[in-house]
Structures are given as C-alpha cells and as structure tokens.
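hiii so my PI (J.) wants the whole complex modelled not just the main chain, which honestly fair. so below is everything: four entries, each one labled with what it is. i double checked the lines twice but i was tired so who knows lol
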Amino acid sequence: MKEPKIGVYICWCGTNISHMVDVKAITEEIGDMPNIKVSRNYKYMCSDPGQDLIISDIKKHKLNRIVVAACSPRIHELTFRKAIENAGLNPYLFEMANIREQVSWVHTDIEAATEKAKSLVIAAISKVTHHEELERRTVDINPATLIIGGGITGMTAALDIAESGFKVYLIERDNKLGGVVSKVDLTFPYMSSAQQLIKSLINKVSNNKNIEVFFNTKIKEINGYVGNFETKLKLQKKARELKFGNMILATGLKPTDPESIHEIGYGRLPDVVTALEFEQMLIKGNIKTKAGKEPNNILIVHCVGSRNEKYNPYCSRTCCMTALKYSNQIRSALPKTSIYHAYSDMRAFGKGCEEFYSQTGRKNAVFLMYDQKNDIPTLRRAGKNDRCNIIAHMYEKLSGEDIEIPADIVILMISMEAHENVKQVAHAAGVSICSNGFFMEKHPKLDPIATTTDGVYIAGTCQSPKDIPDSVSQARAAAARILTSISVGKVEIELTTAVVNEDICGACHTCINVCPYSAISFDEEKKVSVVNEVICKGCGTCSSACPTGAISARHFTDKQILSQIEGLLAVSNKLSEKLEMEEV
Amino acid sequence: MEFQPTIVSFLCNWCSYSGADLAGTSRMKYAPNIRIIRVMCSGRVDPTFVLKAFSEGADGVLICGCHPGDCHYHEGNYKCLRRFLLLQKYISQMGINPNRLRLEWISASEGKQFAQLVDEMTEVLIQLGPNKFKEITQPA
Amino acid sequence: MKKIPVTGVYFHYYTNGHAESINFLETENYIKKIPGVIILGNSNELPPIDKQLFIKKIQELHIERLVIAGYSPGMVKTFFTSAMLEAGQDAEKVLIAGFNEYGAIKKSDTELAKIILHFTIAGLSLDDISTYSKKPVNENTLVIGGGIAGIQASIEIANSKHKVYLLEQTGTIGGHMAMFDKTFPTLDCAACILTPKMVEVGQHPFIELMTYCEVIGVTGEHGDFKVKVLKKARRVDLADCIGCGICSEKCPAKTPSEFDAGTTLRKAIYIPFPQAVPNKYLIDAEHCIYVENGKCGVCVKVCPADAVILDQLDEEVEINVGNIVLATGFSTFDARRAENFGYGKLPNVLTSLEFERLVNASGPTEGNITFRTIDKKGNPIFTNDSKSPQSVALIHCIGSRDLTYNQYCSKVCCMYSLKLAHLVKEKLPDAEVYEYYIDMRAYGKGYEEFYERIKGEGVHIIRGRTAKIEQTNDKLLLRSEDIENNRLIEQLVDMAILSVGIEPRADSNSLAEMLEIVTDNYGWYIEENSILNTTNTNRPGITLAGVCQGPKDIPDTVVHASAAAAKVIQNIILQKTKKAIDKVMLSEIETTLKD
Amino acid sequence: MSYRVNSEFKSDLKKFGIAEQWNECFHCGNCTAVCPLTENGFLFPRQGIRVMQMGLKEKLATYVDPWLCYYCGECSETCPREANPAELMMTLRRYLTSVYDWTGLSKKIYTSKWWEFGSIIIIALLIIVGFLIYLPLKSGADAMVNQSGSVMINSLVEGISAGQFVRIIEIGDWTMAIIVAALLISNILNMFYKVILSDNAVKVPFGTYFTEFWRLIYNFATQAKFSKCDDRNYWVGHLLLMTGYSIMFALVVIALPLFQIEEIVPWYNWQRLLGYYATFGILFFLIQVTIGRIKKQDTKLKFSHPSDWLFIIMLALTTITGILVHIFRLNGMVEATYYLYIAHLAVLVPMIVIEVPFSKWSHLAYRPFAVYFSRLKKAAVKKIEYQRELAPAI
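here's the output for the full assembly
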C-alpha cells in the first residue's frame, strides 16, 4: 500500500455546523496529525467551489485519501465520491464524518460538540487509511417492469412504459382494475367524469399487448437486485416466474374504518354513510335515506380520522375538495336541500380549487367549523319533533356557539390510510415504512418517488394521501426513471459486497447458512466459499459470523472498523490521560 | 468535573442511522457522549468490535438496528440479537457490567426515540461510573 | 359501426367564468345529424329544467343514454342521473362531455367541441384517439428555466443519454429554491439539497447549460423545433473566468442584489451567489459605469485571467430540438399593491422572500435577524449593525385568496410561514412570534405534523387575517380579529413579514404567445387535461414542468418535472409525434369513429 | 342552550337586502379588523355574517351590533371575497327593525312594495280628503293677505278662526306624535327585551342602567360613533339632517302656535333662522345622498333598497312642499299656499307615521339605544369575565 496522503475538509454548512462546532480549531489540530497533507474548512463543501477545492488539492498535493466532515453521508457521500472521481482518484478512497445531523444539530454545548466532532473526524481518518480501491461494475437491465397495484396510478405508469414498447407486469390483488377511482363518480374541481376516465384507461390497459395483468394476485417475495429482479406468482392454474428490471409500488389506499370513532355514530345510525358509500349513491343517482326519502338536510363531516392524534395525525389532502364536490352534486339534484359542512380548515389549495370553494359557497352551503383535534361532532338519533333523522352537536368555532345541526344523511369524509398490505409488500420489495404507515421515499423533497432500494419506485397514495392528478404525476415520474434506466440498459451495481480470502477459508459453511440472499455458494473443487457479487447486497452478516475472518465486507472490513473505533476513542483517551495527569 | 461517559454506537445504515439523522433534522437535543459508527446492518456488528470498543476505553456500547421484521437484509437484526445475548453474558464474565452494552431497535422515523435513548443510556453510565476494563487489559 | 343506443344530448350553457364560449348552436346542429341522437334542450340555469317534465320526456322518447355537454357539465350531472333513475332508466348511462376539459373554450374551438361531443356520444374518450404519427423526433430537448423544475427535468432527460439544452434567463441556475434558507417540513437547508443537483447539472455530459439567455422565437413543429436564442452579453468569458472575485471587489457600481431579494447590494460585475452554477462572474449592463458612459473599466485592469470583455455584444443562436419543456416558474406578489400593509413605506415590513434571505446564513447578515437600515447612499438594506426585533408577526395570504389580487391559493405560503416562524424562534428564542392566518393549509406528507410542532414551539398562531399595519412610534400596529377567541387584537410588533403569494411571471403571456400555448385568466399555462395530463400543453411537443402550470411546493414540483421528463423520454424512444387534437380534421375523426 | 342552525334563513333575509353575496364569506376577519368602530365584545360585521350564515334567528334578535355600524363601506371595499359585509349590516338593520316591531307591519313594509307605497298613499289620501271636506278653502280667501302682502295662512279655512285652525293642526300634530311615539317606544321596549332581557349570557348590573344613560342622549345629539368612521363627510351631512329635522319637528309640533303665525317676522327672527337652518341641513343631506346613490361610487351608497329611495323621495317632497308653502305665502298666492299646505301635510304625516316606527327612520331611536344597550352588555360581560386564557394583547 502506498503511503497515505490524506486531505481533510471540514464544512461550515453556512452556520449550521460552524455555530456549534469550532471548525477552525479542529482544522488546525487535525493538520498536525501524521499522514495529513491538507486540512481545510469551507463554508459549503458541497457547492461547486467546495468540490473544486478538493479536486485541485488532489491534483496539487497528490492526495490519495479524502475525509469530508459535513452533513450525513446519506445526503452527500455520492456528491463527493463523484468529485473525487473527477479528480482521478478512486471514489472509495473517501470517508465522511457526519458532524451536522449527529453533532451540531443535536448538541448545545460548543466545547463538547467540538470534542465529539473532532473524534468523529479522527475516526474517519483512521478508517480511510485502510480503505481500498473498488472498481465500478455494471449489470444489464431487464427491460420488463413489475407494477404492484392496478389503480389509476399503476395503470398510468403501466401505459407510459408499455406504450414506449416495453413489457409491464401489472399485479392486482382484486379481480378487476380501477382501484378507488372506479368507485368515484366525478373529479374535482372541474367535475369531469371519473367513471369515463377510468373505463377508458382500463380499456387501454387491457388492449395493450405489452401489459400483462395478473388478477387476484399477491406478491409474497421478490428476489434479485436492480435490473434483475424476479418473483414467483402462485396463480390458480400454475406457478409463474416473472423477471423484471424495475418495479413500481402503487398499492394505493384504504379508507379508515369510521366505526372506531365513536362520536360519529357510523354503524350505529343508519343514515351515516362514508364518502365512498355516498359516491355509490351519486353514481346511481339515488340520494335517499335508508327509509327511501329524499333528504331535507345533509351534513358533511370533514376530517373524520384525519388530523387527530387518536386516529391519523396527518391531513388526507383530498377530503375538503371532495366534500365541496358533493355539495355541488347534491345541489344540482336537490335544489332545496340544506347542506351543512362541518370542517376545520378549508384546504382548497390546488389549481382551480379556491374558485371551486367560492362557487360552492354561492350555492348555499353552510360551512361550520369544529375542532378536529379535541371536539368531534357527536351524532344522535333525532327525536320525533326534530323533523329530521339525526342531530349533530358541536361547538362552532367561528361563532363561538354550541349548535345543533339537523341532518337526514350524514356523509363522513374519512381519511386515507395506506393499504393493509403495505407491510407485506414493503418486506418483499425491501423498502421502509414511515411512522404513518406509508412507504418511505428516498428523499421527501427531491426524490419522493424513489426508495432506498435501487430499482424500486413508489407512486400514488401508497406514498402519502393525494388526489388523482398528483398520483398520476407520480406515476409518470416513476415511469420516467424506469424508461431512463431501460433506455440506458445498464446499471452500476453495489461494490461494497463480501469477498472471500480463499487462503484462510476453513470451509465451515457458516457464511452460507447466514446469508439472507443465498449469495454464497460452496466451491466443491477449491473447498472454499464463493460470493456471487451481483446478488450480494453487502450487509456483512457473513463477515461477522466467519470464525476465521476469511470473508470480509468490502468498505466495512474488520480492519477498517476496528481502526475507526480506535480513532473514535483516541480523543477521549487523550482527554482522560490529561485529566489523570492533572490529578497527579 | 462530573464524569462524562463515552458511548460507542453501531447504527445500521437503513433504519437507525436514518433515525439518528432524523433526530438531527428535527433538531432534537441529546447528550454529546455518543460516537456513532455506521455499518450496513446490525448483523455486521462483530463481537470483536464491541470488545475492541471496551478495551479502547468506551464506557458503553450501543447497537441499533431495524425493528424485527423490518431489516433491510431480511434478518440481520435477528442475528445481531442472538450475538448480543451471548455477548452480554460474556462481558459480564470479564467484569464488565452487562448494562454497558445495549441493543435497541430504532426505525428511520424514530428520531425522538433515539434522542431519548442516548440521554437515558448516558444517565445509566454516569451512575455506573467509568469503565475500568481498559486499565485491566492495558495497564499503563 | 355499431348502432348506438338512443342518446339524448343536453347542453348546459353555463360557461363557468369564461368570457367567450364555443358556438353552441353550431355544435347542436352538427350533433343532431348523428343517427340515434336527440337534442333534449339547453339552459344555463340550476336546476336546468323542470325535473318531472324532463322525466316524462325521457320516457316518451325512450332515451337510453344521456350526454350532458358544456363547460364542466358535471356540475349538473346528478340532476340528470336522478332523473334517469326516476324515469326507470340506467342512471349509470349518463355521460358528460366537458368542452373545457380538453381545451375547447373559445369560439374558435367549436370544431374541437364537436369532436369532443362526437367522441363521448360514441362512448369513447378523447384520449383514445390515435393522433400519433411516425416521424423522426430530434433527440435534443430544450428546457426553459433553470429552477428546481428545470434542473430536475434536465437531469431526468439527460440521464437517459439524450442531450438537453438548459436555458436560464439569469446568470446562474438554481431559481427561487436557491434563495431559501430551510425547506419545510424537514427543515433541511435548501442549499444542502439543491447545490448538489446544480453541480450535477453543471457537470452532466448530456446537459448544455445556457445561462443568461432568452428564447426569442420558435418555429417548426413537434419533433423538429427551431429555437432562436438570444445570448445576452455576459461580458465575462465563461472559459477564462476563474471566479476569484477581484473584479467585483474593485467594481465601483452598486445595485440591489436580485438573489438577496434586495436586502443588500451587489456590484455591477457580480456572481449571483457563491454557489452559483456556472461559478463565473457576469456584468449587469444596466448598472455598469463603462456601459453607460464609456469610462471606468476597473474590472478589465484587475482581472488576472483577462476574462472581462466589456464590449461584448448580444448574440443570436439557433438550436434544433424535438421537444421543449417549459419550467419558467413564478414571481412573488408585489406587496406594494396591498397598500393596507404599508410595504415599501414602513421599513420593518418585509416580504417573506426578503426575510428568507435575511435568516439565511449566506444572506446579508449571516442569518441574524435585524432591522432594515439606510446606507450612506440612501439604499434600504440589512446589516449586522442594527438591532434585532423582540416581536415578529407573520401575515398569511398576501395577494392570494383575495379577489382584489389573485383569487387562487398560492399553496405554499401557510407552510413556509410556519417554517419562518420556526426560524425566528430558533434565532431569537425570546422573541414573540405571531402568525395570522385564514385557513391553515398543511396538506402534504409530514405537513400537519410540522404544524403541530410549530404550535408547540410557543408561536402564537391566530385565526384571522390582519387588516392593516400602521406605524406607531418605533413599532408596528397590527389590527386583526382573533376569531377563535372572539376578540379584537391590536398588536404592537417590531417586525412584520408579509407571506406573499406567487404569481405567473410578468412575461408568461408573451412567452405563451410566442409558443402558441394557452394561459388561464391569471397567466398560468393551461394543461392539456387537468386530471390525466397536467404536463402536456395544447401544442404537442411543448411540455410543462413545475410552478408555471400552477402553484406547487417543492416535492410536487419535482414530481411534476419528472413527469414532464417522462413524456419527453417516451417521445424520443418512440420517435412519434403527436398532432394537436384541434388540428385534426373532423372528417378524419369521423372515419376513425366508423372504424 | 345550543342553537339550531338553519340554512334557509338566508333566503328570508334576502328580501330585506340588495346585494346578497354574503355566503361568499370565508371568515378571514378582515372586515372586523379594518372597521374603526369595532371593539371587544362587538366584533361586527364578521360575527353578524356568521350568525346570518348559520341562520341563528334567536341569536340574531339579541344582536345589537348592526346598529353600531355606520356603513363607511371600508369592510366591503377590502373584503377579499367581495362578500359585501357592510351591505349585510344594512340588511340586518332592516331585518332587526322588523324583529323589534311587534305589529308585524314593518316586515310587510320592508318586504313588499305594495305595502310600502300603499300605506303611504292611504294616509296621504286621508289627509287630503279630510282637509278638503272638513277644512275647505274659504270663499273669498283672496283677501287673506296682510299688509306686507303675504298670505295669512291660519285664516284660509271656511268657518274657523286663525286660533282655532292652529289649535286643530296642533292637536293633529300631537296625536300623530303620540301615536308614533307609542309605537316607537313599544318597539324599543321590545328591542330592550330581546337584546338585554332574553340574552341569557347577559346579567346587567342594576346601577349601570343609570351610569350609562348619558350615552343615549349624547349619541343621539352628536352621533359620536358615526364621527369615528374614517370618512367624516357623511357624518356632517347626517348631523345636519338630524339637527335640522329635529328643529323642524320641534317647531311644528311643540312650538306650532309660535311658529305658524299670521304675521311675517323679519328674516333674522328666531323662527325664520331656525327654519332656514333646518331647510339647509335637510337639503344638504338630500343632495349629498341623492348624488351618491345615483353615482354608486361610494360603497356606502352603491346598493339602494326601495325603502332608501322612498325615504329620500318623501323627505325631498316634504322639504320642497314646505319651501313652496313659504314662497307662495311670501308672495301672497293664497290658493297655491292652501293646496301646497295640504300637500305638505299629505307627505309629512305618512312619512312620519310609516317611517318612524316601522321603517328606515326608526333608526333615530334604535341607534342611540343600541349604543346604550351595548354599554350595558359590555358592563355585564366585564362582570362575568372571560374564563379563557388569552395570549397577551395590547
């Protein structure tokens, strides 16, 4: 190994780091350490000039190891690797110390934070000293795509990909396509027909030769890696094996069960219906109470199950506008019926939505504000003299009055939850789930459709509640990624895989037993374990299980981590020594 | 000066490291005693890493992984759990209080839980006092 | 051709705010000729007609199917479904033909309206029409606008190994997002997540960056556009400039910095911001002394790389592309127009964009919140010399949700106001922060949780928009109604931030004219279909990305831009161009339908 | 007690108003905050819009706030939804007038043009017919001109002396005044019952009735509340009208024997000076308002209900006939004086009888009483004191 010449760069991140960590002091102190050729700090290391700084230093000082202390490597590891590569250095001769998310943002004592940051930098230096060059490798992308979910999101994505001439396998758990949109009459705010729209989409999907739809099918397990996934389907007649390069999860939503919300009386009072039940009434043109009468009063309760810690803390995004849509639809068929909305904030934020809100108000809808967090309206059966079916009681916030609302039909705008199968799908596809039960995206802002697993995309309401245009946009965005990946045809694969040192392998088979991907096999000829580097994902379980240390995880080798530990504790060791000296 | 313990912590890349990052992006405050090492999976945590940390003077070691069933590599966290249970017995035989070693599940959305965990463990270690293991293994 | 069932067509004349309408009578006469079609009437009333009479008519004429045509005729659909049900027919056989949905709005769109209606009667959707024709598509793409939408679309397309020209009007890409401090709801800094993307664009082998350029003419059609681009004279050679900044240091001419939203000054030779891409200087001709009167030229003398070319002239170039992505973004509402709030007169009334720069670590005060001061030359700027406010008020919906200005909701102000409230609390923990809102629109992933968090940070969040701001002594007096607590508030604060809404750019209409695409009443570009296709425009080959289609937050913009890229990539892969529906002859449609 | 909401109330209320975009309101609170007259406890117009939107009739009856609004129009001008809150306040005043009126006539007059014009025409006809039959013009009345050549107005009727004539008119005036006052006072008592007594939330401390009483008089005399509106022009016009008409009313009813005298006193005598001041005041107001209502530029005068025009027309006719009587008299035109005198009364009497207790003019009493009641309510509220924890407000 060449003598290490290390460059250390410490980022201010504006003031994000520098307000809590004495960046300059660390730079100076590090500069005096052995093997350190360059030690600098800069306001934004990730910016163009920051990266240029590293590149020019590599060229000028012939650096062969780089450490950047900045934000989380999950954000910028790739950025810096790329920069280093541009300077002609192997990108893996690089290590990041996370001194923002795990130091400056979480601590309040400048001295302690600086100490900690310093030890993290030293640990990174110790680790990077043992880093090895890793070479990039690519695999071919299978042009077929698997899409889980045959709702509007899944179908749009399927069509986008299939119409470009590539194969799509569309998996639907139900016996028909269409998802929730097929249960909806009209869309907001322009009142176009969801039925016509979804029927036309289903037609297109069924007639597209590139799309193969599997009904009544669930995915249990997916193997492989980006570009080369595979799954086995158990169909009624026979098993079927699918191979594909990418997948989109579009498993959609599940309406909250309103029976759990006691006040609202669903199940207890016959004329309390959910939004989807009301859509059926609209599709059939039959807005009647259970007793078959035309309603004189209709109450629409917003935010049922949303924005309330007891049920779902989040906003379901579409219910306000859907409720306004109902208001307009009811008004067109029943001009004399009183329409009341119990809402908490009117979230009419989309294009044309505020206008729609105002239009609805003009058609004599009464908007009553309640406190969705603490004070859900309570519904009871009306008395004989009430001349209606149901009475709702609530505190009205805009007037400050306790009021009663007469109602013959009550429509509950129930919240959207992720479908119950997300857990199973997440497990099969290897993606995470956020605290609200939706799929977790790679980055909430800059990459809401990708996941931490390459080749797996999420779109539509399985990522978070959203309306049709937004779901469709996500479907298209996911399709864009996949089209890109297919048209390029190749993808780089994980380099940080396991590797066997054949000289010391004891042929004990331990690694083969612990590998979750069956990536290790036994070479009967050589009597050693062999790693299939395409399948290996680099978890390192084999490495920690190997009794002889023959198998190691690249980029996370024992040597690297042990010296990282040493480096990590060097500062506190020095400190305690100093303390002891003082005591003496 | 009050005794300030040092905790070496191994966090899996997918859940726990993200969780620690989330604590940061949410600006939750916790004790500065923890030093984090990123590993791809809690299953990668070799027992020697833990022993190395103690022998280098760490006062506590914390391993965090995905919740059972959520492992990015399917079952690495289970393997970690098995090793952890054995390791706890082992270190107590070597004279290290088994409470100095902890294994916890932290998901990517549990920034708050992570911050609380660090504070809690720091508190426990302050009660336990400094780790003498280093002095035994590496007498000055 | 299959015999179509007896179909009643009803025209709903209500035009829903559109000033001009298609020729209903002509459409009626055209549609009458289709066998099996009966015109049932028209009106613009609600309810449209007497229900019982209508039911009778359905029964008498044995109508099996109803088509309601008009502008958003879905508004009256339920009337007809219930009428069908009561007449004993299948209520699910009520179809709607919305002219505006597919862009038939004006009188000149009557032919299109006929097509739409004819299709609906035939039981097909307009999306079914195959108007693609095989024709070579130029693989190059032009992306207009270098904000986050343009960046995202460019990267997506370029990653598929197709060349992208990314055209930007100013000297750097980055757009508005680069100006922000933190982004909601995760509070990660905008620069931290944007600058890597900017760097990626700058380094991408398939992206040609054209900063400081403008589109001045577009000819040709989908698959083969010829775009005339004006390369404004940068007066600093991009290749030679090393970005050392000595020129700027010595330059004597100063003017308010656009990037800092006017909160500080920049020189006439400047770099928009330190992380700009390309990281090269340029000269603002309007303020350069040399350009004005031929004297000065300090920059030329001090430049160590001889990169300054003071006499450089604008240049016109032509590029050939197959697709154009419009990502022109937005401008913020001019708060001077809302006189009640005193912006422009009262020094400590700021717009949210100004405040965004003020709290930014790379802003004029390194992130310290201070009062506005006047420099020696009378420019109102922010420096670290003045004091910090003890109380700050944030007022939502300035220029949004207001018929006097813009009726629409700007979608982002609630959330960014909450974020700014948090930043004030973070920087000035003892300051009182008041937030005045109408409806709190925290709709996205993690937004509601963020709202709850800010509430927990001790910010006073008050329902009730402030009506006016007046100066009293050295404080600002805000008058508002605290609706939820039934009281009137006359609040004295040190600083007020106006959460201004977003508007189409001033040149959006002229650009639309040049590109022959349509805008709505406000100036946002209209999408081909509001539900299924929010990225295409009425002109094939021109795609929308981001806020220029309508207000959006960052995640939605990014997704929208990727979706726009999908259309482009698909198009290049397929090598097929699309005909605009309104360019398709009616007779062609008729033959298609017969098939 | 909780109120029952009723979305149909709006359509009832519509009959009292002109512009009806009130349901557009999305409760931003701008109107209340922009109004210079609002104060804690009286947060109009938004709360009024709310109560109206929800159709809380019982609540509305206890609501005095519309009377505290003087319609400067700023709320409507700055309303982001153009919901026209100021016009709603006006409409609510009409509606409340009908609520306070126990006879039910007010509602009929406001909501039906037939009732409105019919009632006035009937009373006018009664006056005319009564005069022509019982107080006909004397034959040979041409001679009833005094030395200075002006008509001796009290001596024109057949068979009665000048003193008797004045006496008859005075009795007529007093009868009218008493009837009108009785109706108005009963309506005010009704208002008091609705606003104060039936509002369960309010328990007025007894002493307050006396300590706050001065406000009634003060506001009646100065319309101090009105003067706080940003545009003071209309306050001036209104004050001129109010003082002018009050003076005229006092002269005609209380001081008729001193005012309506046979001799023509010099112009600087108090009767004439007061009369001229009153005429000027009324004319000033009439011109200001008529121009405004025709131009429709000021928000305040953009929307004119029939009752508004009727008020202007009746007031103008009263004034013009009054002026003409004066001119004809000075010029010795006997017949013209007599018939114009009848015409004057035929306009004046129905206007007072109909407008004061039942229609627009009733606000002369309701407004100052509303100020008084609002103080009573405020005192009561202070006593109860809000329990809610409030953020610091200055």
